[in-house]
Amino acid sequence: MLKTRVIPTLLWKDFGLVKGVGFDSWRRVGSVQPAIQVYTLREVDELILLDIAASGEQAEIDLELLADYAALCSVPLTVGGGVRSLAKIQALLQAGADKVSINSAAYQDIDLLRQASLRFGVQCIVGSIDVRAEDGVWHCYSHCGQVKTSHHPVEWAKKLVDAGAGEILLTSIDRDGTLSGYDLSLIKAVVEAVNVPVIASGGAGNYEHMREAIQCSGASAVAAASMFHFTEQTPKDAKAYLNKHGVAVRM
Amino acid sequence: MRVGIVYIGMSNTASVCRALEDAGASPFVMHEPCELSQAQKIILPGVGSFNQAMNSLKKMGWVDALQEHVLGQKKPLLGICLGMQLLLQQGCEGGDSAGLGYIEGAVQHLQNLGCQARLPHMGWNSVAYAQPHHLFAGVASESDWYFVHSYAVQTAHTESIIGQTEHDIVFTSVIAKDNVMGVQFHPEKSGKQGRKLLENFVVL
After folding, report:
1. How far apart are CA A121 and CA B101, in angstroms?
2. Catalytic one of B17, B149, B188, B199
3. Going by C-beta distance under 8 Å and a sequence separation of 6 or more, which residues neighbour residue B199?
4. Which residues are B26's β-sheet partners?
């Protein structure tokens, strides 16, 4: 039986790891290399590494550094941030990424996903969606939450999957860094609209939040950053908790 | 032990190399079929579509060369993910095309095999052993492995089925016939037991 994944998210900016609240007020929380080493040693299910500088500032991910990081990682690694071309996707996969997350570029040219999935396979193309609610209405945001788009996350998720995304990484900007729980209704709405795995992201503060996202909203995986950076909670204990509550996980 | 990894253009060879080095082997990536002569063992990885991968193999002259080294000289071959599927006779991803045909059977979309669960089948899932095999020496049955795929193999003969996995339906996830082996999951991304499997392949 397929296990539900618990995935630490690492936000990479310049030379270190950061974490913010609502995609803002970034705090340094450590270095990338030891974080990957520790998570690999503890056999986490998967890792997500997002270069947030590459997304907002039109910069490029440092491929040499990425290759060093990927070499340390014996579990699947999803890499994102500033992914705008087929050549870039190829370079990231060659540097050791197993999956590539595409966000902002998809709004400019959704055909990028179509071409990428044909060339590299749907299994390595992750469609990433960042969502903010205004007056009770969800809107997709690009460029690390800085640019509001005209798209609704449910419709946009369907389009990404039609274009070739093999997985959806769904992040609530409103909940990001708050430790107050995932946006359960957002996750449920997207899970019901698409037939690929959906990773819940943004807001995890405790193990119960993860259980809710899985059992109430149908997430195939739960991602968390602040919860692992700023509290004593660990992916391993998260899975023990989930297992006790009837969620199939890899122990 | 020189382990040659076939380069089909888009595979993530870095993590396979690293895992093989940890297992005590000397892996090297083969860009040309002539390099097969330096390999004592062969790994066929693969991402992308069946059709595209077969086209690349044909164009580069791999098909005849692999046949000589695998079926002729009996060098052990391990196919990973798409590389496992290529070992069969027939694939349909990206259009019908013939595979390498070392193991009798064909590759089907999981949906066509009756799977109604979310696809791709992505994440950690267990393998139940259908029969003992050296690849799994020292690894408990029902251990979890990292999968990411939408197609699965259907072998013509049950003797070539080594392990099976459940994702709404039960499909074949490990196959072997003589010196030819294939795993649908990614051992290089399956943590400790993945390393163990590659080590078992190296000392085979």
Report:
1. 22
2. B188
3. B23, B24
4. B2
CATH topology of domain A5-244: TIM Barrel (3.20.20)
ipTM surpasses cut 0.85: yes
Contact list in A for residue B148 (CB cut-off 8 A) is 76, 98-99, 123-124, 166
Domain assignments of chain A as residue spans, ordered by start:
5-244
Residue of B nearest to A7 (CA): B123
Give the largest Cα separation in chain B, rounded: 45
Domains along chain B with CATH numbers: 2-93+104-203 (3.40.50.880)
**Could you tell me which of A213, A204, A212, A199 has the C-alpha nearest to residue A234?**
A204
- Min CA distance, B160 vs chain A (Å)? 22
A200 close to A217: Cβ distance less than 8 angstroms: yes
Q: Among the options B17, B69, B81, B149, which is catalytic?
A: B81
If you compute the radius of gyration of chain B from its CA atoms, what whole number of angstroms results? 15
Pairwise CB contact (< 8 Å): B48 & A119: yes
From CA A3, how far away is CA A16, in angstroms rounded? 31
**Residue B50, Cβ neighbours under 10 Å: how many?**
23
The one-letter code for the residue type at A188 is: K
Of B18, B166, B189, the CB nearest to A75: B189
Would residue B81 show up in a list of annotated catalytic residues for this protein? yes
List, for residues A152-164, the tens digit of each pLDDT value. 999 999 999 999 9
Residues in chain A: 251
Counted across chains A and B, CB pairs separated by less than 8 A come out at: 108
Checking DSSP bridges between strand A99-102 and strand A125-134, what pairing results, if any? parallel
Known catalytic residue: B17?
Answer: no
Query: What three-state secondary structure class fits B171?
Result: strand
Q: Which of A45, A73, A167 sits opposite B124 (nearest CB)?
A: A45
Closest-CA distance of chain B to residue A214, Å = 14
Place of tokens 């459940």: B166
Parts of chain B with a pLDDT under 70: 10-12
What would the pLDDT profile of A98-109 be if each residue is shown by its tens digit? 999 999 999 999
